[in-house]
Amino acid sequence: MKLYRPFLFCFVIFLFFGGISCLVNRLDQKQSSPVNIANASIPETHSVDQEQIPLPFDNLENYTEIKGKIKIGDSLSSSLTRHKVPGHVQAEIIRSLSSCLDLKRLHADDRFSVILDELEHLVKCSYECGPLERYTVERKNDIFTAGRDAIDLDVQTVVFQSSIESSLFNTFLDQGEKSPLAYEFIDIFSSKIDFNTEPRKGDRIEAVFEKYYKEGSFVGYGRILYARYQQDDSDNEAFYYTSDETPGLYFDSLGRETGTSFIKSPVPVGRLTSKFTWHRKHPILGVVRPHLGIDLAAPVGTPIMAAADGKIQFMGTRGGFGKQVILSHSGGYKTYYGHLCRFKKGLKRGSKVSQKDIIGYVGSTGLSTGPHLDYRLSVNGVFKNPLAMDFKPKSVLKDSELKAFQKDREKLIDKIHQASGHNVMQVRHRVLHPDETIAFL
Domains of the chain (ranges plus CATH)? Predict the structure, then answer.
């Protein structure tokens, strides 16, 4: 027995280590056995590269928003830097926005908003160029997209009724409206009424027009749909009408265009200081001689419009008239504009102009006691009083167009009567799509 004890001890040691080795091999085999990839659960990994970071758009609690405004002399990059937007975020914003927005034509007071996640990676950027133009950069499925946004607007159709107490402008302003609306109202009747000389206290004004709102804030006036100016001895109405055959124009109740070949006054709002006369004492020379035009006092720099379609026959300095423009028109007509402080840039002798184009600006050059326009009109060389001239309408609706106009007119009149006493006649929602624009007054 003593002889077998060493052998037995060695045998036990062999079995012990052999068992451990077996167990390790079995474990190794289990670890290296094939895996069914289709049913495997692979842990999600996050790359340091920001392009691979999934963004939880549904939860904005951990996001940071940086708001800013473009200042005079700013580039987008300098403004973003001033507001401490990280450099890599700036690069992505500029790269994305440049695909849909000319970054060289930014304006002061443009606004932007940048949203970052907790790792300071870009989530979203919005850039607003005024109330109706907004661009957005946003990450979707790990890719940045950029484009112009659709804008939700509310449009109110408003009925305005009042009477003149001091001036037409004050009549609109006193009712809470703005000057562009008054200018447009004047322009509609510019061939029928000289608003420098004809308005009187007690004249009645009526208008139906559109007002646009974004998120409850007023952003601009749309079209005037109906305008009316009443005096004791006259009643002028204008209805806006457009169709496939007729561009948007204003017509009276009989379908005659309210616009004529000549407007009454090249300066919409001025003060008549001298009338057309054959005997007037010159304020500087002191001699009595004809004044074959009208003088309209207005501040220096007030725009002067062409009274009718025509061509520039003369543009320069001419004696007591100072800086003057002379336009020639069809039918032997000519119009004269004197005492200008300067001419409209880009115009020269021979240039063609359209009615209501700006040709120059009120001044006091030549023999003048103060800033005003000396306006004259001649027919075949004979000077006429421009305020006494009566011109035919530019166009008259006929046949099917007249019937369609009358139908639209009757519908509008019915709505106005139904809304009598109510300021807002109708409210509608409008979506301004990226490819659309609105020409506000």
Answer: 60-149 (3.10.450.350), 153-260+394-432 (3.10.450.350), 271-388 (2.70.70.10)
